[in-house]
Amino acid sequence: MTCTWLHRRRASVCVVFFAGWGMDARPFAPLSAGGVDVCMLSGYQKVEAPNMMQLHEYEEVVLLAWSFGVWMAAQVCTWQLRAGCSDMIALAGTLKPVDAQLGLAPEQFEAVLANFDETVLVKFYGSMFDEEAHSALFLKNRPRRELADLNRELAFLHRESLAAPVALDMFTQHIVTSRDRIFSGRNQTRSWGRENVRVLQWPHFPFYHFATWGELLAALRADV
To answer: For the CA atoms of the chain, what is the radius of gyration?
Structure first.
C-alpha cells in the first residue's frame, strides 16, 4: 500500500483518502486543496494497516473511502485510527465488492481479469464517467502504472475480497452514486440498506465535479 500526500500544507483538517483500484496521484492533480490536507492510500497488494502517525497533528481527521477503497479501509483501519476520525465516509463502494447483489457481478469481474489489457483498461476508465469532458481530463491525467502491476492489484482485490470475512460497517456515512456504471446504485443501496444511505446523482468518479477537495468534502457532508 502506498501513502501519498496530495496536499500537505499544515491545514487543520486532514482527509485520509482510500482510493479505488488502479489509482495513483495523477488523476487527482486537477483538484486543489481547498483548505484541507489530503493523504491518499492506493496500490493495494497486501492487507496491511497504514502508518498514520502524522494524523495526531490535525484538529480534525476525515476518512473518505472510494470504490474498492471502501472494502480496503474496512479491512485495515485500526480502532485507533477510527476513533480519531470525526467522520468516515463510504463513497461508491461496498463491504462486499464482488457480489451479484451487493457489488460487482462476479462473472464480469472474472472476465475483466481473464482478458485484461490496454483496451479493457481504457473501457473501464470510460465507464467511470458520464461527461466526455471529465473522461478526457482523466485520460490526460491517467495513472502511470504498468499493466502487469494493475493486473496484480486487481487479482489481489478479487481473491482477498472473496476470501475475507465481511467487515463490520465502520462508516458514519454511506454515499450512493446513482449514475454509477461500475458499482450500480441499486447494489450500493442494497448493500447498506435504503434507510442508511444518501443518494447523489453522481457517476463512479465524481471528483471532477469539484475544483477542490474542500468543496468535495462540503458536498459529502452537506447533511451532517
So the answer is: 16
**Three-state DSSP class for 185?**
helix
* Alpha carbons 153 and 150: distance in angstroms, whole number: 5
Q: Give the pLDDT confidence of 97-154 residue by residue, as tens digits.
A: 999 999 999 999 999 999 999 999 999 999 999 999 999 999 999 999 999 999 999 9
Paired sense of beta strands 173-177 and 198-200, if any: parallel
Residues 134 and 202 sit within 8 Å (Cβ to Cβ):
no
| Cβ-contact 216, 191 below 8 angstroms | no
193 contact partners, CB below 8 Å, separation of at least 6: none
User: Which residues lie below 8 Å from residue 179, measured CB to CB, with a gap of 6+?
Assistant: 130, 185, 201, 202, 203
Q: Looking at the whole model, is its pTM more than 0.90?
A: yes
Q: How far apart are the first and last CA of the chain?
A: 30
DSSP category for residue 11: -
**Gap between the Cα atoms of 85 and 28, Å rounded:** 22
Which H or E element spans position 173? strand 173-177
Which DSSP state fits 128? T
pLDDT single digits (tens) 5-56: 999 999 999 999 999 999 999 999 999 999 999 999 999 999 988 877 789 8
Decide if 43 contacts 24 (C-beta within 8 A). yes
Q: Which class for 57: exposed (0-12), middle (13-18), buried (19 or more C-beta within 10 A)?
A: exposed
Beta strand segments in 12-156, E: 13-18, 37-42, 60-66, 87-91
Calpha distance 148→24 (Å, rounded):
15
